Amino acid sequence: MAGESENVVRNMPIDLYYVPGSAPCRAVLLTAKALNLNLNLKLVDLHHGEHLKPEYIKINPQHTVPTLVDDGFAIWESRAIITYLVNKYGKGSNLYPEEPKARALVDQRLYFDIGTIYQRFADYFYPQLFGGAPADKDKLAKIEDALNLLNTFLEGQKYSAGPNLTVADLSLIASVSSFEASDIDFKKYSNVKRWYETVKSTAPGYQEANEKGLDAFKGLVASMMKK
Question: Mind listing the pLDDT tens digit for each residue in 48-76?
Answer without folding.
Answer: 999 999 999 999 999 999 999 999 999 99
